[in-house]
């Protein structure tokens, strides 16, 4: 189980000559992210957690916030994304949508239209505020960690053993689901965005 969260996507787009505020940025970032996820799955990873919305994202207001939700819905469950999932046979789930009504139909569509069983599961995290992970755990009203994992995710997921990010070495419980923390090895690349290559991954 791996957390794969690449910072610096806007910087990477600017370096590639793509305006970060453009629709092309969202399309380009989604494509690059899918390439990274496919690479990890190809090398035996079974569960990958990626960030869809962070508390800082969700605190935005007005037109930016609405555009963020629209881009998130399209990036995770738009026609191009669904075609990728079908081609690779991935199961994809959106977590945390109970706190974001606009994304509840997205979560339902992924549940209905991606593989019910797969050796490759992509978990997209939406964390609208810092207390959200703890609210979700407490609402399960379970007695053990294993029971809480089963209640939240619908199955027993192996503990996270790899955190792969970029930039400044830091993480928090928005990025690392508390119930799934194992003996986590952490790596921070110094290339911005979703630019992970096979030689770099093997190294």
Question: Features of this protein?
Answer:
single chain; 203 residues; alpha/beta; 9 helices
**Gross morphology:** globular
**H/I helix tally:** 9
The order of strands across the largest sheet is 3-4-2-1-5-6
How would a crystallographer describe the biggest sheet? 6 strands, parallel
Ends distance: 19 Å
Low-confidence stretches: none
Binned strand content = 15-25%
Secondary-structure element series: EHHEHHHEHEHHEEH
Radius of gyration: 16 Å
Mean pLDDT across all residues, rounded?
89
By DSSP, the count of extended strands is 6
Helix content estimate: 40-55%
Find the structural class using helix and strand composition. alpha/beta
Compact summary:
The chain is of the alpha/beta class.
Explain the overall architecture.
With 203 residues, the protein is of the alpha/beta class. It contains nine helices and six strands, in the order βααβαααβαβααββα. It has helices spanning 9-15, 23-42, 55-58, 62-77, 79-88, 104-113, 132-139, 145-153, 198-202; strands at 2-4, 47-53, 91-95, 121-126, 160-166, 181-189. It has a six-stranded parallel sheet with strand order 3-4-2-1-5-6. Helix 4 runs parallel beside helix 5 (79-88). The protein starts with a strand and ends with a helix.
Write the layout of secondary structure elements.
Blueprint: E1 2-4, H1 9-15, H2 23-42, E2 47-53, H3 55-58, H4 62-77, H5 79-88, E3 91-95, H6 104-113, E4 121-126, H7 132-139, H8 145-153, E5 160-166, E6 181-189, H9 198-202
